[in-house]
Amino acid sequence: MTAEIRYVLAIDLGTKRVGLAIADPVHRIATGLGVVEYKGLQKFIEDLKKIVDDENVRLAVVGLPLNMDGSEGVKARQARKIAGIIEEKLEIDVELIDERLTTEEAVRRLHAAEGKVGKSRAKLNMMAAIIILQDYLDSLPPRSLS
């Protein structure tokens, strides 16, 4: 029997919605997992704990919204703080991933697939999480499938 599969979860933090994506078992493809409505930090951690437990997540990659010059502003500092809380409360590893231009890429992809984004703000958050995770997966060294 193979070892227990450990999934990787991507988190795109937003003020109203948090986009989520998960990697396949061999860490090659990111798939949207949906969104969680942000109703305060405690509720968010509770919602995330259920997902982490249900999906056997052992690593979360959290989007770090750096400024275009690479510096950190208020949102990046908030993301670092929340990432630390996720790591502590859920007892999983957390990596921060540069997410500059992720939202613009998500908008472009949704426009290409569905036309205007309009009312699909939740899809935008999830698409951003997919992009963050796929960028992370693409940065990993190739793995043998044998």
Uncertain segments: none
Largest sheet: spatial strand order: 3-2-1-4-5
Main beta-sheet strand count, sense and barrel state: 5 strands, mixed
Radius of gyration: 15 Å
Q: List how many beta strands DSSP finds.
A: 5
Which CATH class?
Alpha Beta
Q: Structural class of the secondary structure composition? A: alpha/beta
Strand content: 15-25%
Overall morphology: globular
Tell me the CATH superfamily: YqgF/RNase H-like domain
Question: What features would you describe in this structure?
Answer:
This protein is α/β, with parallel strands linked by helices and 146 residues long. The protein has a single domain, classed as Nucleotidyltransferase, domain 5 (2-Layer Sandwich), CATH 3.30.420. The protein has a five-stranded mixed sheet, sandwiched between helices. Strand 4, helix 2 and strand 5 form a beta-alpha-beta unit. The protein is globular. The mean pLDDT is 87.
List the SSEs and their pairings.
Elements lengths: L6 E6 L4 E7 L6 E8 L3 H15 L1 E8 L9 H17 L2 E6 L3 H13 L6 H19 L7
Parallel strand pairs: 1-4, 4-5
Antiparallel strand pairs: 1-2, 2-3
In short:
The chain is an alpha/beta fold and 146 residues long.
Key attributes of the depicted protein:
single chain, 146 residues, alpha/beta, Nucleotidyltransferase, domain 5, 5-stranded mixed sheet, 44% helix, globular
